[in-house]
Write a structure and sequence with these properties.
Catalytic activity: Hydrolysis of terminal, non-reducing beta-D-glucosyl residues with release of beta-D-glucose
Largest sheet: 8 strands, parallel, barrel
Radius of gyration: 21 Å
Strand content: 15-25%
Number of helices: 15
GO biological process, one term: cellulose catabolic process
CATH superfamily: Glycosidases
CATH class: Alpha Beta
Structural class: alpha/beta
Bound molecules: methoxycarbonyl-substituted glucoimidazole
Keywords: Carbohydrate metabolism, Cellulose degradation, Glycosidase, Hydrolase, Polysaccharide degradation
Pfam families: Glyco_hydro_1
Number of domains: 1
EC number: 3.2.1.21
Distance between the termini: 16 Å
């Protein structure tokens, strides 16, 4: 259960969030846009990966997805109907630079111009993610994130986007979840580009962070004032302190420390030593990576439960985690098999504010997949509503504990392409019928609308 404590509830007896708390929803380009070949968009690593037999459920691809590229006015209207303050979306790099470098594709820029204008017309604040996993394939052909030059291309792309949208977009996040890009993409291979080379995954992680730092420099030089990065973070639950520290290092501190402290954690450097000599870290890199940021985006879904077990092989997504087992949690599960443990969000937020003080936090993703059914034009997604309610209570408990939490963006606005799961897993508060593209707000959306209106539960 989330942390239970008696609050000094205000007038109407609800949990009130701070004045100005930002309520919104989040999506990502490859997961919702479709139009994979429209208007000059080039191929990304996810176009390639989803076409690789066996990589994505039933061979699903993002070719059409939610057809958001064409239906964005309707989707913005839905955001307005829900009363959302903000909308977090990512920009498709290959739509802007089909080969990952060189002059921008004007038709790609035009789409995001139109989207931002539509949002502004609806009084909805855009929150841009520059990179949500859809690397231009041409850059992957040159090594992708294992190639240091990709970091430089990313900063050039960031500057292009700021020059086009900076007059209307105030909040910019550079990367979504570099942990997933590096360790799902290059170590375990369960995400694009599907490489199973743990020995290069740490270089990929570093170049992603270098790209973040160079992009922060470029954005700041161009006048951006609200810049951040989004990390997927998880508290680690264990009866074994050593096992917990190993996974905390490989999941959380490997990114938090370079970005917010300007150093890699020594224990992680040592454990990764069996894969790499870290020679990809050049003088000055960590100063660039730890450029000051204004906001830390936190994606939270559940804690990690681990235990020490002699002889246990490394978990492929955590290179260097030999001796650690992942037994799973004794808790209700979502359709992804992820445990529902809202208390983990409170623990995480309080830990961040204690260990990495001074950086305001925003929950950039939190949500759940459940098997939804449309009945008489409605979706009674009680499980998702309960998950969101519990996690908002957990977030409120963190605020009560003094955490500087600025907002909450539910994952996701729409059912969408759930990466290797394809379309079979639904995270949206709005149901999408992929045959007709009909949108149906679920009960969770109607409940969330009331939360936003009341600024509380
Ligand atoms: C393990 O959870 C990760 O933090 C995570 C979960 N999720 C994410 N990251 C990604 O940012 C989204 O694109 C996914 O659609 C979403 C749901 O899977």
């Amino acid at each position: 259960m989330s942390a239970q404590k008696s609050y000094n509830l205000q007038d109407s007896g609800v949990l009130r969030f701070p004045e100005g708390f930002v309520w919104g929803a989040a999506t990502a380009a490859y997961q919702i846009e479709g139009a994979a070949r429209d208007d000059g968009r080039g191929p990304s690593i996810w176009d390639t990966f989803s076409r690789t037999p066996g990589k994505v459920h039933a061979g699903h691809t993002g070719d059409v997805a939610c057809d958001h590229y064409h239906r964005y006015p309707e989707d913005v209207r839905i955001m307005g109907d829900l009363g959302l303050h903000a909308y977090r979306f990512s920009i498709s790099w290959p739509r802007i630079q089909p080969d990952g470098a060189g002059p921008a594709n004007p038709r790609g820029l035009d789409f995001y111009d139109r989207l931002v204008d539509e949002l502004q017309g609806g009084g909805i604040t855009p929150i841009v993610t520059l990179y949500h996993w859809d690397l231009p394939q041409t850059l992957e052909d040159r090594g992708g994130w294992t190639n240091r030059e990709t970091a430089e291309r990313f900063a050039e792309y960031a500057a292009i986007m700021y020059s086009r949208l900076g007059d209307r977009v105030e909040t910019w996040t550079t990367l979504n979840e570099p942990w997933c890009s590096a360790f799902l993409g290059y170590a375990s291979g369960i995400h694009a580009p599907g490489r199973t080379e743990p020995e290069v995954s740490f270089a990929a992680a570093h170049h992603l962070l270098l790209g973040h730092g160079l992009a922060v420099q470029a954005l700041r030089a161009a006048g951006a004032s609200q810049i951040g990065i989004t990390l997927n973070l998880a508290p680690v639950l264990s009866d074994d302190a050593e096992a917990a520290s190993i996974v905390d290092g490989l999941q959380n501190r490997i990114f938090l420390d370079p970005v917010l402290r300007g150093e890699y954690p020594a224990d992680v450097v040592e454990r990764a030593g069996r894969f790499t000599d870290w020679s990809f870290v050049k003088d000055g890199d960590l100063e660039i990576i730890s450029q000051p940021i204004d906001l830390l985006g936190v994606n939270y879904y559940n804690p990690q439960t681990v235990t020490g077990r002699a002889g246990e092989p490394a978990n492929p997504v955590y290179p260097g985690s030999e001796g650690v087992a992942f037994p799973g949690a004794d808790a209700p599960k979502t359709a992804m098999g992820w445990p529902v443990q809202p208390f983990g969000l409170t623990d995480l937020l309080v830990r961040l504010s204690h260990d990495y003080p001074g950086t305001p936090l925003i929950i950039t993703e939190n949500g759940a997949a459940f098997d939804d059914v449309v009945e008489d034009g409605q979706v009674h997604d009680v499980g998702r509503l309960s998950y969101l309610d519990g996690h908002l209570r957990a977030a409120h408990a963190a605020i009560e504990a003094g955490v500087d939490l600025r907002g909450y963006l539910v994952w996701s606005l729409l059912d969408n392409f759930e990466w290797a799961e394809g379309y079979r897993k639904r995270f949206g508060v709005v149901h999408v019928d992929y045959n007709t593209q009909r949108r149906t707000p679920k009960d969770s959306a109607l409940w969330y609308r009331e939360v936003v209106r009341r600024n509380g539960l």
